[in-house]
Automatic annotation (TrEMBL):
Record keywords, A-Z: Metal-binding, Zinc, Zinc-finger
A GO biological-process term: protein ubiquitination
Organism name: Arabidopsis thaliana x Arabidopsis arenosa
Top-level EC class as recorded in UniProt: transferase
Lineage of producing organism: Eukaryota, Viridiplantae, Streptophyta, Embryophyta, Tracheophyta
UniProt name for this protein: RING-type E3 ubiquitin transferase
Length: 219
């Protein structure tokens, strides 16, 4: 079973306004979206399977609000960020709280710069059952088919990591001279060949989503 949840992490900081931004208080928002894949086994234990940055780059927005009241900030954020209302209302509350915090009292009477780092984390959780988490090793023919049909060459600029050894797919695992990549046939998760073969020698399934390789042929 697969479930998805989204959480928002916000970090704010205020400082003196740089001269090149003029005499109006400003807010710089840096928005970054990531995907976190979690694996929950039958005992309820959760493992971080992989942590993958989204393909979209970090977006930056410069605002010069006339008011730091939450309702007015929310309307401004909806126009500038093109995001859903609950997201903008949540972010507006965080910015307003920072603006009027006692810790920033000395900055109330003069222009300031507020930096807001926003991290939107999409959590994808795979919950395994005894049926979906086979414990037997993969048949011998699976290894042969993976070698012949699912081997891909590593891209040297690939930042994705192997979720078994946690090293980059573009690099060989520690102590190995072989860095071919195996891309699983159904889910398309990728691993170092040596890593996934060692795993399949004990479990006939993908270590991330637990789908069986070539399962359509094994039904």
């Amino acid at each position: 079973m697969e479930t998805e949840t989204v959480r928002i992490q916000v970090a704010t900081r205020m400082s003196n306004l740089p001269p090149n931004l003029g005499f109006t208080s400003a807010v710089i928002i840096k928005l970054h979206e990531v995907i976190e894949e979690l694996l929950e086994d039958v005992t309820g234990t959760t493992h971080v399977a992989s942590y993958v940055a989204s393909l979209s780059p970090i977006s930056r927005v410069l605002l010069k609000p006339r008011s730091f009241l939450p309702e007015k900030l929310s309307r401004l954020l909806r126009r500038q960020l093109n995001r859903e209302t609950p997201f903008c209302e949540f972010l507006a509350e965080k910015i307003s709280f920072c603006r009027f915090s006692r810790a920033n009292y000395t900055l109330y009477q003069r222009p300031f710069l507020m930096s807001v780092n926003v991290r939107v984390v999409k959590e994808v959780r795979f919950v395994l059952s005894s049926v979906s988490a086979p414990l037997s090793c993969a048949p011998v023919d699976v290894f042969q088919r993976l070698l012949e049909e699912q081997t891909v060459e590593p891209a040297m600029d690939l930042d994705e990591s192997c979720s078994i050894c946690f090293e980059k797919l573009s690099e060989s695992p520690s102590g190995s001279h072989h860095n071919s990549i195996i891309q699983m046939p159904n889910c398309l998760h990728s691993f170092h060949q040596n890593c996934i073969f060692e795993w399949l020698a004990r479990h006939n399934s993908c270590p991330l989503c637990r789908r069986v390789p070539f399962e359509e042929d094994q039904d």
